[in-house]
Amino acid sequence: MKHLILICSLVCLSVSAFSQTGILRGTIRDGKTNEAIIGATVQIMGLATPMGGSTDVNGQFELSKVPAGTHTVQISYVSYKTKSVPNVRIESGNATVLETDLLEDNQQLQEVVVKAGRTTNTEIAVVTEIKQIKAMAVGVSAQQIQKSQDRDAAAAIRRVPGVSIVDNRFVLIRGMGARYNSVLINDVITPSSEVDTRSFSFDLVPSNIIDRMIVYKTGLAELPGDFAGGAIKIYTKRRPEQNFFDAGVTFGYRGGTTGETVQSHSRGGLNWLGLWSADQQIPSSFPERAADFNSLNSLQRSAYAQLLPNTWALQPMTVSPDMRVALNFGRRFDVGNVRVSNLTSVNYAMTNQAANVELKLYDNDVNANSVAQQYNDATYARGTRLGVLHNWSARISPLFNLEWKTLFNQLSTTETVQRVGQQIANNSDVRAISERFENRSILTTQLAGEHTISDLTKVNWIGSFGYTGRWEPDWKRARYIRTMGTTDPFTIATPQDPTANEVGRFNSKLHEYSYSGVGNIEHAFGNPTDREPNRIKAGVYYEQKDRDFAARFYSYNSIGDNAVTVRGQDIGSVFSPQNVNGSNGLTMLDGTRDLDSYRGFNRYYAGYVSGDVYFGSRTNLTIGFRGEYNDQSLRASINGVDTRLVSNKIFSPLPSLNLTYKLTDRANVRLAYSSTINRPEFRELAPFNYYDFNLLADIRGNTTLTTATIQNVDAKWEFYPTSGELISVTGFYKHFINPIESFLLLQPNSLAYTFTNAQSAQNYGVEIEVRKGFTESSSQFLKNVSVVGNLSLIKSQVNVGDVVTAPDLGGEIQKYQGVTDAKRPLAGQSPYLFNAGIYYAAPKSGWQGNILYNVFGQRIFAVGNIRNPTVYEMPRHVVDLNLTRTFANRVEIRLGIQDILNQYVRFSQDFNRDGKIGNDVSSQTPNADQDIRKFRRGSYYTASVIYTFGRRVIVP
Fold first, then answer.
1. CA torsion angle for 416, 422, 425, 426 (degrees, to 10)?
2. Which CATH number fits the domain that encloses residue 49?
């Protein structure tokens, strides 16, 4: 019996070892000319069954199913000296890259240089990584991004199951709002790119700097606990495969924008770099407090107003094509025994977007389609972006790697809106103008170290600094009115009390600094070459975030008998110094409130520990616990007194369990439980009132918001037919306590949003993902084809509770009863998501192409009340087409069409309050669900040329 057990154990061990395989790929070159060697033989020595292959026309080779372990690789070719490369380590499920050269046989053999590393940016590598992650995760690789020709992370992440995009930059996972996502770049939490919401703008990350993106759907102890939809990790490229330099330029044509004549305004300065001239800022001589400014007489206030430039005049212009330029530079060199790598990427883009926006607000009384306001907005926005990635990596020794990574983005938007329509409730024809400039600077830089203490123990640490700056210098707004239906001249409305939605100049600035420290230790038990050894992990995370926000608003009002004549002048002259004279024309008031400025402080402390428990060879349970303590406070100066507005100190215990059962070597069943949270952001808490001209809406914070808690349960079946293929089905359930949502305030004939906590919510659904290739097909065409598709079906329901705590129109906190539906879907939650893509890639011919499709179900944009119905964002079917041709491995030409169907972006209110948007003839009020805002973005055509000056050695 003992012998039988021993024999069975050895057989099982042999089978297990045989199933643990990896990939060896690389390039062989001539040591003198650096040209590729075609037909060189590459062999793995010492195996019972010989294994080898030969290099192709590019000198490249790939050996699959190489047994895991350390091997000697022999390379030979006629007239060249045979080379043996020892100690080449193959890791199970991973790809090892080997690049070396051969010397001619008549030369003396010189030192052998072996360079090997783990590939992380291919589809196979990402699928392998996802397979080995204990949590449920999905991802997208640099290789797939290249196939899709996605310009940035926002476009690329649409390929991930359960992910959709809002406004071409914000990510929704499992149909949940952007606030329920946590975003990390190189394992450090990113600063929010927005002021008004908790969200990260994914269009800030150009696709050419991405190594891979992994989306975690379930919690792990080492992940931040502030998420419910997903935790998204973006990894930028670490080091080049070899020295290279390439440059690319892209020109874009957008239907309805490019070549059209539009109205814009000047900002001066280096506007093309996202900067503006100094005269756009409020002079330092202005009194700091509104009370001091308004106590001055009208002549003194007008003297201050004359210091502001009269830059209101609109300028017609013809929209030029979009342009993007990218420069990528990589170097590897040795300093003594230290291998140093540098990767630098510089991206610049100037883009344009024009649209005609239909905008309507309704009375929403018993009569359907009773319009209160209706407008057509001619909008034009020019955006610029300057992005720099600068990474350094130093391999100090085989046991110590040091990295410094920096990512910087400078962005600007110059937006002009001309509004024409009627305010029917006030019997007024309206012509309004908005001239807005926004600048954002976002910087993250980090120093990271990886230490291998032994084969079983590894330590890593990160120190990080982040900065976010946002400026809205001199946002100018004006509204001309006349009696509706008459031919009277239009005159600017100048109320006596400063009002944000009337004439005035708005300035704001935000500075946010974050400091982070991360430390992790991992220890494996048993044989370190095991495919999945038992491990224990522990770590700490600290983040300090300080925000300083200040806004100023100045309004013009009338004075003297000549004011009516002055107010009738065109926008370019009405605010000239001779008219803003303080005696017989216009003067200025300061409408700034003390609460228009605030300071936010957040201290975040976290620690975790997790470990693996194996129940036999097929079952693994990962148990983790994370504790997070968060101290969040908000302060403002009220009447000159520093006042604490918010103080939230919360400790959150966050356990997690992840169970994996291996049905076969290619199929798993996973079960997961995790407890997570969702914290309010500074802007959601701050009682600052912000007027959004485009939405005709006020947005204000709610100081009573509290942290939401979420319990998450997931079950998943996954099957890996081959190393690059995947089929999976996932079911999930989430239960929320105090979910945070956007809420419409009770305000007649206009819109005002705030943020509230509902009592509870639940969310459940199923996701299906398929990645399929046809490499075994007899058709050469099908061998080059792969298909990716994912479908999510989701059901959600919110229990609002008896009371809604929210500010009223004056900002005072009130408790409202019976003002909204007691039960409805979760705000921002789509009932379905579907993505699909067909890819064609023929490396030998240089052709690549794909067609991509994306759609989401209607989702709540803003929760309604008894006065204003709930507003939904409606589905859009999006189809993209891309084609690429590579010539001589140096020149790449790309052609693309995005959003071929060009369907309306549409927001509709549910007048029938039945949860459906449409014309239900069975309803008592048919044809009553109304569009409140809709427009087309225009199909987008791009042509790119990329030239590589230094050849990339490894082409996945």
1. 80
2. 2.60.40.1120
